Amino acid sequence: MPEPDERLYFLLQRAAHQLRLAADRRCLAAAGITTAQLGALFAVHDHPGITQQQLARTLGLRESAVTSLVTRLAAADLVTRRPHPNEHRATALHLTDHGVAALDAARPEIDRFNAELRARLGDTTFTQTAAALSKLTHDASESTPGP
Fold first, then answer.
1. Which of 20, 50, 54, 129 is 20–30 Å from 42 (CA)?
2. What are the angstrom distances between the C-alpha of 88 and each of 27, 83, 84, 105?
C-alpha cells in the first residue's frame, strides 16, 4: 500500500481548487454568482458601507482584483457604490435588493455544501480542520505587513 501523500500545501491547493469548482457550479446554478462574488457579498452584507480597500483586506485580495470584482458586482446590480461619508476619495459599498436576493439564494446551497463536507469528514475532523485553517489564515494575515 503506498504511503499517504503528506505534501500539505500541495494537498490544500488541490482540495481548494476542486472545492471551489464544485461550489462555483452550485452557486451559479442557485444564484447566478461565483464563490468569489459570494464572498464579497457576504462581506458587504456584514459590513455595510465597507470600502474597496477594506474589502480587499477582508478577502485577502489585491486592491486591483477587488476593483474588477466590484465593477462586475455593480454592473450586475448586486452592489452600489456611494460616496464614503468620511473619506472623500473612497466609495462605500452597499448591497442592492438584487444582491440581497442573490445572497439569500446562495446561502442554502452553501449550507448544503458545508453539510456534505461535514458528513464526508465527520464532525470532529470538520471542526478541527476548520479551526486549523482559521488559525493558519489568522497567523498568515498577522505576519503580512499591511499598507
1. 129
2. 35, 7, 6, 34
With cell 470532529, the residue in question is 124
- pLDDT the model gives residue 147: 47
DSSP string of 8-67, one letter each residue: HHHHHHHHHHHHHHHHHHHHHHHHS--HHHHHHHHHHHHSTTB-HHHHHHHHT--HHHHH
Q: Which of 98, 106, 95, 114 is nearest to 55 (CA)?
A: 95
Closest among 94, 115, 106, 134 to 36, alpha carbons compared: 106
User: For 75, what's the count of Cα atoms within 13 Å in the CB-facing half-sphere?
Assistant: 8
Domains and CATH numbers, the chain: 30-122 (1.10.10.10)
- The model's confidence at residue 5, banded by pLDDT at 50, 70 and 90, is confident
Instruction: Tell me the DSSP string of 64-109.
Output: HHHHHHHHHHHHTTSEEEEE-SS-TT-EEEEE-HHHHHHHHHHHHH
pTM, 2 dp: 0.83
pLDDT value of position 88: 84
